[in-house]
Design brief:
- This protein has 649 residues and is of the alpha+beta class.
- Helix content is 24%, strand content 26%.
- The protein contains 14 helices and 27 strands.
- Strands 10, 11, 13, 14, 15, 16, 17, 18, 19 and 20 form a ten-stranded mixed sheet that branches. It has a five-stranded mixed sheet with strand order 3-7-6-5-4, with helices on one face.
- Strand 21 and strand 22 form a beta hairpin.
- The N terminus is likely disordered.
């Protein structure tokens, strides 16, 4: 096999002078079947009969030179004026046929050059853009055994060899003319191509219908495959149209979305959920008649409750928080977009921010942006499913410089500020502003020195509820009493207990806490007459109903704060499902003697301790046994029904 050099203008012999474009067109039209047959025979058989047919037609049609008149137009015109023009049908040089034949031959040879990564592909090496026949495969009529043998033999030749055969057999050119044309076409070794061009005895077969790409048969393509391609194409076109329409919508289509990310995808439900005109707004008096009192009965309040642009931004940021949005969510709260149009609770200016509160039945969402500018925003999620009047009395509107503003429920008629560490002081009354907004109050200290712990006493619906800020969107309700019989903290003894355990509340801060209950489950006389100690169980229940935090605390006379005796996370102890608890401590008397002290709730019939050089037991739910300093002991108990129960852990 011989190497074929791609025709190149730097090494190729000078091309014939281009004829007038109209003469070239006339030559192509008149000799079109001959040109197409020439291209079909020279093209590599590896392309397949259908692609060879289409490529041959494409090469013949692309042989038309560029421009209106070539450099040899005047020469051709003078030849016509000075003598008799060539006879019609004779492929003479003056007719432009030789020029277009050379262009077809060059393109057919280029089509046989293998594609490489080192050079850009030439146009002839790629599938033709035109002509195209959709749904049909085209190929010449089949010939006899001689034509088949000739076609198989041609497949063994390279492009220059096939070109030499065609020029000799089809064009009837003598050998010197074949060598000249091959040289003009850019063949590196024309003599070798002529030498392998075969026996002239078979030249008549080149004119048979087997090699006529203008007399064709048609058959369908793969129908099932075509159907799959059509379906895939339609789906891709539809997706492209939808994406283009979404990208073309200015500002997301509805208006400016502020700090929201670009809209990635939309559907009908999402469109309604993000439409400020479809926000749910309840009547201001609905809570009077509703069978259930919670966030779902809060009316829409605030001086910007009718600001459609603000509400649009809040909904868009909720659905698609962008990179400049500071988002937070309490544990167990899904931060995704609303499932339908949410309820508007508040929209207005608070301190130096603009705040929007929304509720979707599962969560309360707080959106905040600066008074000036919408490029940044804050987004807070808090789970509030199953909220009742007791747990939906207030929401945090803003936190600025350590102060907190609350939005109170519509049924709250009075608010007082109480310091839990000062149980004897009456709560300081707070004047509610317009729409039920409280003045700024100091937030409880999250850590460090606990010198005060503020809580709000909210009066309404015939009761007073005590709530405190634990760093979340919903304040936690504080209660006292045995599991299943919790009550609001109003009595002096209950306030006294809370004054000694309030500084342990930072351990449950920012955990999605719904309520915190303190239960004095036992009182125990201390050995050596050192007074009476109290045992408390504090249970912080979350909105999610999981990972509730339980602490057992030990209060001795005269101590300002309680000591933590035991703690557990996710334990049912001290709750409605398991209303019992057992804990113990290592305590030192005033005389310097160490004791193991333990106490359980009323369900315990006996307690026992062992290990660390200590061994003892006691009937009832309290135990006091002497022990060495630093003793490590095991504590166990037995319930009144005879079953064993361990300590809180």
């Amino acid at each position: 096999m011989l190497n074929v050099t791609a025709p190149d203008t730097a090494t190729r012999p000078p091309s014939p002078v281009p004829p007038d474009v109209e003469l070239a067109e006339a030559a192509i039209v008149e000799h079109y079947p001959r040109l197409v047959r020439l291209a079909y025979l020279v093209l590599p058989p590896a392309l397949g009969r259908n692609r060879r047919v289409l490529t041959a037609h494409s090469l013949a049609q692309r042989a038309l030179p560029r421009g209106r008149r070539g450099a040899g137009a005047e020469t051709a015109a003078a030849a016509v004026q000075g003598g008799v023009p060539g006879q019609r049908g004779t492929p003479g040089a003056e007719s432009g046929y030789a020029y277009v034949r050379l262009r077809v031959l060059r393109a057919a040879l280029e089509a046989g050059i293998p594609l490489t990564f080192r050079a850009l592909p030439r146009r002839a090496q790629l599938p033709p853009l035109l002509p195209q026949v959709w749904g049909l495969r085209l190929f010449p009529r089949s010939g006899g055994a001689e034509e088949l043998a000739l076609d198989q033999w041609l497949a063994t030749l390279d492009g220059p060899g096939r070109a030499a055969c065609v020029l000799r057999a089809l064009e009837r050119l003598p050998e010197p003319e074949v060598l000249r044309v091959l040289t003009e076409a850019g063949v590196a070794n024309p003599s070798a191509a002529v030498a392998e061009s075969g026996d002239p005895a078979n030249d008549a077969l080149f004119a048979s219908p087997e090699f006529d790409p203008c007399v064709l048969q048609a058959r369908p393509t793969d129908l099932l495959r075509r159907r799959r391609f059509v379906r895939a194409g339609l789906a891709a076109a539809a997706a492209l149209a939808v994406c283009g329409a979404l990208l073309a919508l200015p500002g997301g289509g509805w208006g400016a979305d502020g700090a929201a990310a670009p809209p990635y995808a939309r559907n009908a439900a999402a469109e309604q959920a993000l439409d400020p005109g479809k926000l749910v707004r309840v009547a201001p008096t609905l809570w009077h008649t509703s069978s259930r009192t919670g966030f779902s009965t809060w009316p829409a309040r605030g001086d910007r409750a009718d600001d459609a642009e603000l509400l649009r931004r809040a909904l868009a940021v909720w659905a698609r928080p962008g990179p400049t949005v500071v988002a937070s969510a309490t544990p167990g709260t899904p931060p995704g977009p609303p499932m339908g149009p949410p309820q508007l609770l508040f929209a207005g200016t608070v301190d130096q921010a603009v705040v929007v509160l929304l509720y979707d039945g599962l969560r309360v969402v707080r959106y905040a942006e600066p008074r000036t500018g919408t490029s940044v925003a804050a987004l807070d999620f808090a789970r509030t499913d199953g909220a009742s009047a007791d747990s939906s009395a207030a929401l945090v509107l803003s936190r600025v410089d350590g102060n907190v503003r609350y939005l109170t429920a519509p049924w709250v008629t009075g608010v007082g500020l109480r310091d839990l560490l000062k149980p004897g002081d009456a709560p300081a009354p707070l004047k509610l502003g317009q729409d039920g907004i409280t003045p700024p109050v100091a937030s409880p200290a999250p850590s460090g020195n606990c010198t005060g712990w503020n809580a709000l006493a909210l009066t309404g619906n015939g009761s007073t509820r005590l709530v405190t800020d634990l760093g979340e969107l919903t304040p936690a309700r504080l209660t006292s009493g045995a599991p299943g019989a919790e009550r609001d903290v109003t009595e002096g003894a209950e306030l006294g207990d809370w004054s000694r355990i309030a500084c342990l509340l930072p351990s449950v801060r920012s955990h999605g806490v719904r309520s915190v209950n303190a239960w004095t489950y036992a009182k125990q006389p201390l050995p050596e007459g050192d007074g009476t100690a109290a045992w408390l169980c504090t249970r912080a229940e979350t909105w999610a109903g999981t990972e509730d935090r339980v602490q057992a605390q030990f209060l001795t006379p005269g101590a300002p704060l309680a000591a933590q005796a035991a703690k557990a996370e996710g334990s049912p102890a001290c709750g409605p499902r398991e209303p019992r608890v057992l804990a113990g401590v290592l305590w030192k008397s005033k005389a310097g003697q160490w004791y193991v002290l333990a106490a359980g709730s009323a369900q315990f019939a006996s307690l026992s301790v062992s290990g660390g050089g200590v061994n003892g037991s006691a009937n009832g739910n309290r135990l006091a046994v002497k022990a060495p300093a630093g003793a490590q002991v095991e504590l166990a108990g037995k319930l009144t029904d005879g079953t064993k129960a361990g300590v809180l852990r």
